[in-house]
Amino acid sequence: MYQLAERLFPICRSLTGNGFRESLRILTEGLADIRTYEIPTGTQVFDWTVPKEWNIRGGYIETLDGKRVIDFADTNLHIMGYSTPIDAVISRDELLEHVYTQPDQPDWIPYVTSYYKERWGFCMSEKQKQALTEAQYHVVIDSDLKEGSLTLGDVVIKGETDEEIMFTTYLCHPSMANNELSGPVVWRALIDYVLAMPKRRYTYRFVINPETIGSIAYLSKNLDVLKKNLIAGFVLSCVGDNRTYSYVESKYANTLADRVVRNVLSYHYPEYKTYSFLKRGSDERQYCSAGVDLPVCGICRTKYAEYPEYHTSADDMSLISLEGLQGAYEVSTKIINALEYNAHYMMTCMGEPQLGKRGLYPTTSQKGLVDEVLALIDFIAYADGQGDLIEISNTIGVPVDILIPIVDKLTEHQLLIKK
Amino acid sequence: MYQLAERLFPICRSLTGNGFRESLRILTEGLADIRTYEIPTGTQVFDWTVPKEWNIRGGYIETLDGKRVIDFADTNLHIMGYSTPIDAVISRDELLEHVYTQPDQPDWIPYVTSYYKERWGFCMSEKQKQALTEAQYHVVIDSDLKEGSLTLGDVVIKGETDEEIMFTTYLCHPSMANNELSGPVVWRALIDYVLAMPKRRYTYRFVINPETIGSIAYLSKNLDVLKKNLIAGFVLSCVGDNRTYSYVESKYANTLADRVVRNVLSYHYPEYKTYSFLKRGSDERQYCSAGVDLPVCGICRTKYAEYPEYHTSADDMSLISLEGLQGAYEVSTKIINALEYNAHYMMTCMGEPQLGKRGLYPTTSQKGLVDEVLALIDFIAYADGQGDLIEISNTIGVPVDILIPIVDKLTEHQLLIKK
Amino acid sequence: MYQLAERLFPICRSLTGNGFRESLRILTEGLADIRTYEIPTGTQVFDWTVPKEWNIRGGYIETLDGKRVIDFADTNLHIMGYSTPIDAVISRDELLEHVYTQPDQPDWIPYVTSYYKERWGFCMSEKQKQALTEAQYHVVIDSDLKEGSLTLGDVVIKGETDEEIMFTTYLCHPSMANNELSGPVVWRALIDYVLAMPKRRYTYRFVINPETIGSIAYLSKNLDVLKKNLIAGFVLSCVGDNRTYSYVESKYANTLADRVVRNVLSYHYPEYKTYSFLKRGSDERQYCSAGVDLPVCGICRTKYAEYPEYHTSADDMSLISLEGLQGAYEVSTKIINALEYNAHYMMTCMGEPQLGKRGLYPTTSQKGLVDEVLALIDFIAYADGQGDLIEISNTIGVPVDILIPIVDKLTEHQLLIKK
After folding, report:
1. Considering only CA atoms, which of C287, C111, C264 is closest in space to residue C207?
2. In sequence order, what are the residues at sequence separation of 6 or more whose Cβ sits closer than 8 angstroms to the Cβ of residue C26?
3. If 0-12 CB within 10 Å is exposed, 13-18 middle and 19+ buried, where does residue A147 land?
4. CB of A152 within 8 A of CB of A168?
5. Count of CB contacts below 8 A, A vs B?
6. Closest by alpha carbon to C82, among C130, C143, C124, C32?
7. Nearest residue of B to residue C398 by CA position?
8. Helices B400-412 and B256-268 sit at what angle, rounded to 10 degrees?
9. What is the pLDDT along chain A (419 residues), one digit of tens a residue?
């Protein structure tokens, strides 16, 4: 995963354009069933209109004697996203009106965009701005903003039922590592995981698009099927650092998606942070919007907007690690397994079964019972069809990971059925 | 409001009688639609019987040489409410059997009544009692207790629907300011407020009567219409001091009345005190009684029975202030406005609307979002028809006051409808 | 109760056998309606098979020169429950493979059984084991394990309705006092209490059997009637010491049985301990098992497995006391009374009734109200048919004991009916 992120890092992505397309091509190499959508500029998607396509080739600020002060070639964050082209000599004062910095983090270049109002701009560190002392500068942005299309992609992997589990992330950010190449590379690893599963109860939908407008466009094409089939969806964002785990609640924090994330994180990393939906900020905004109301929550390591490097040039490849990505991947596969096994189970016998005759219980009785036997008899007591596996796991304090072999063993002994 | 209270203060009111009638006349001066009820002595009202009417002209205790020790002319609290008449010279010992004091508050005269058993009595401070050292006294109470009637009043102001909001208070207390002239004068100001509203979704019912028997009598005449139409009612009592705000829960604390009071007070005065229904003591006793079960809770500044001056001569005009009355008035008008706007709203578009094109969202995206935009997008997310406006206000942490212009703006942009 | 326990203490009881039968005979002396069941060895009861019957006459370990080291005559705990017979001279090493001790409690003999695997064994204190220094020993266990039957007993006392309240306990433990002669002797006292009640709304079922297999066998014969009629059941276990009170929740802690236990203990002994169903260990395991799911919880003084003497020879007659047994008996009779009176009550009048004219309310009104009047008017307010008596008791903070005479008084004044 880390190497794939390294390969994608230098490409300048945005809401639209060839950087996005090239990144999507690399990210989905070898996937037979990737489907892409190109939605033309001007298309109405719900309340929004698909904007023009933006492409950029370069840009810089030079002194009049030809010394480059700022260059897109150094980092694509230097050009404001969706900047219109310019090639002019202008005064320092005029230039400064088009310069964006993050004054409270003077060494870092902020990530700034202007998707829906046409303007041009340079982003730089506050220190670089302070060093602009010449009277005039030559400014060049070699971009174009014209009719084109918005690119979306998805991979749908069929299971035994039409009920769906969705993982979604976004690919519209330029050179930032945690936000957001971490989501796409974990997303890709999960596709490979699901393809390798020997059998799948659920259909899996993996969606990737530019944030906000991309999700809106995707929903405008797929809302009916999602309303009908989606049982749990997860927005992967900022899943590459190694500091903590975070969970962003769905609107009412009461969906199966919320329940499984809380269950898995409570055993995997009990100190995980929960953020209310009021702290949302990624595509759960659209998936949980009024009328859409899908069962979708967010999974992060350190959440977007909660770490200092967020949306700056400091969110670089040193911020993420294989260990960080791997942790998010493991949480996600635990979620998949918990959902695959989640059901209302019922014992086939009345009273406790006689475990001793099946070699599942000690044959002498003295004070004390070991934990494995406790997990088994507690599961058996609650396998009454009332709560599903996740609820039983919460109630008896045993991770689903440990309940899965118990389910298998009891099923094999014909003591357990699904309700 | 304070001046009206000053004018009413000296009048000797009781459950029945001309003091009550005169106070009601002054309180409702200029109101075209005031309706009064006179319910004759002996009328059965639910489990109760309307008592005789009591009127009093004066009363005193004199030494045998004609020195007045206690005089009704000083304060009408000196005569026990519903005292029978007497004019006799009696021994000190006999007199003391008819003297009521509050020994733990030796400077203050307690407020004492005996509505349902005929007896006579004087109330005085413990110090005044200690000074009764003569062997004999001349005691005079010039009152009468005979067939008459119980007086109730209400003002009903029609709205677009028959659904009703009620404010009720009581006028049966003699010269005490907070308990209870504060309720009546705020009640009157609210009538003027509602009459001045440009339009009213709800019908407003303003009820005033003597406490307990008055509410029972009122309910016995109006229970059917209240059961059918009342959506929220509020007992105003002790709303004139300036110490805190209090809320007395309805029986199960789960009515719309409770919800709107908690919502408004939580933003207006977060330190407000909540009293369980077990701490009730005013007419919510009747409105929430078994079988009646109307959605009514109580609003106070410092609650009755919770301040030292309660039911004594120290509850005088110095205890209340315009500022104190004004605070209760403002809370009440906020309650009215919240109820008028309370509804289940739904967005008309899927996904978030594009606020930028309507000038409601910043056009460049960089870290950080201002509070007004947050209130707007949070409201939009929850405008899905599930929770009403009060619930959304609670969930997103934004006062209804601030949501009302947002509702208006989104409605105007045709983005919002009522469910 | 204590004397009955003393009489039963020396008898060697087990899952099956004559010790159990003799104990049951003594325990139910004088009861006309005791019903016993003998279920033959080999009978299938749900998932279990009734084991062979075990009887024991004696057993010891002797040195080769005839000195008795361990003797069943001293305490029947010395022979492992369900031990097969033996009469042999064996080496110390071989003997030690059949010796059970509780090394962390070196002075006490542990209680050990091997019901479902045939083996022989001696139980002794760790100190006794350390003293086994001879090379060879003569070991004798004079027991037999053969076709026979499992003994159950119940007493069903008819009431006005078929709805049932059940008390159950178990009699399969040898010489231990708290666990478990305390349960049986309190159980017997409750039978006498119920028989002496002047009238009974409910039918009472008193069940006694060996633990686990006995409950399973009992359920296999009575599940239909219990599923149909049981409204609340209680497992009495470890109810003889005098340290605390404990309550073991039913599976979801939401049955009438749970509600009444919590209510009674919260007033009787507010410091009582609550144990989740995850800490269960007695016959609630079977009564709450998946599919059975009866409304049954557990009542203890200090709970089994939570006191040091549990399942050892130190659980002797000095551990229990009449005071301890009496406390559990009183809690149980309070539970019975609360259930007998539990109903949804409704006032027959609207508004508060006029209590004064019935002598139930003070005739002068001044600050302050006494507790008895408060309990009365609070009960009246909540007697609206919504919550049952137990819920009202919880809400208004008044024990059911005190509400029962209020219910009687209001009923007598025709102010109250059952819904």
Report:
1. C287
2. C4, C7, C8
3. exposed
4. no
5. 89
6. C143
7. B278
8. 110
9. 999 999 999 999 999 999 999 999 999 999 989 999 999 999 999 999 999 999 999 999 999 999 999 999 999 999 999 999 999 999 999 999 999 999 999 999 999 999 989 999 999 999 999 999 999 999 999 999 999 999 999 999 999 999 999 999 999 999 999 998 999 999 999 999 999 999 999 999 999 999 999 999 999 999 999 999 999 999 999 999 999 999 999 999 999 999 999 999 999 999 999 999 999 999 999 999 999 999 999 999 999 999 999 999 999 999 999 999 999 999 999 999 999 999 999 999 999 999 988 888 877 666 655 678 899 999 999 999 999 999 999 999 999 999 999 999 999 999 999 99
Two tokens, residue A345: 């189970």
The sign of the CA dihedral A363, A365, A370, A374 is positive
**What is the residue-wise DSSP string for B42-95?**
T-EETTEE---EEEEEEEEEEETTS-EEEETTT-GGGBPBTPPPEEEEEEHHHH
Contact C356 B278 (CB under 8 A): no
Q: Which of C220, C223, C311 is facing A367, going by the closest CB pair?
A: C311
Distance CA B285, CA C381 (A): 8
C206 to each of A171, A410, C33, C258, C265, how far by Cα in Å? 69, 34, 11, 18, 22
DSSP C110: B
Q: Are A306 and A246 in contact (CB under 8 A)?
A: yes
Residues facing residue B223 across a β-bridge: none
Check C353 against B47: CB less than 8 A apart. yes
- Report how far residue B121's alpha carbon sits from residue B138's, in angstroms, rounded to the nearest whole number: 13
Chain B closest-CA separation from residue A113 CA (Å) = 5
Among A186, A180, A287, A194, which Cα is nearest to A233's? A287
Name the DSSP letter for residue A279.
Answer: G
CA neighbor of B166 nearest in space, from B218, B240, B244: B218
DSSP calls for A213-275: HHHHHHHHHHHHHHHHHEEEEEEE-S---SS--EEE--TTS-SHHHHHHHHHHHHH-TT-EEE
Q: Which two tokens stand for residue A144?
A: 């174009």
Report the candidate in A237, A332, A215 with the shortest Cα–Cα distance to residue A285: A215
What are A60's strand-pairing partners?
Answer: A71, A140
With an 8 Å Cβ cutoff, are C396 and B311 in contact? no
The residue of chain B with its CA nearest to that of C357 is B116
- Give the closest residue to A298 by CA, choosing from A315, A321, A274, A264: A274
Cβ neighbours of B72 (radius 10 Å): 22
Termini Cα distance of chain A: 39
The Cα B99–Cα B129 span in angstroms is: 8
Quick count: other Cβ atoms within 10 Å of Cβ B75?
19
Judged by CB atoms closer than 8 Å, whether chains meet at C381 and B48 is answered as no
What span, in angstroms and rounded, lies between the C-alpha atoms of C125 and C123?
7
Asked whether this complex has an ipTM greater than 0.85, the answer is yes
Which residues does B contribute to its contact with A (CB < 8 Å)? 346-347, 349-354, 356-357, 363-367, 377-378, 380-386, 396-397, 415
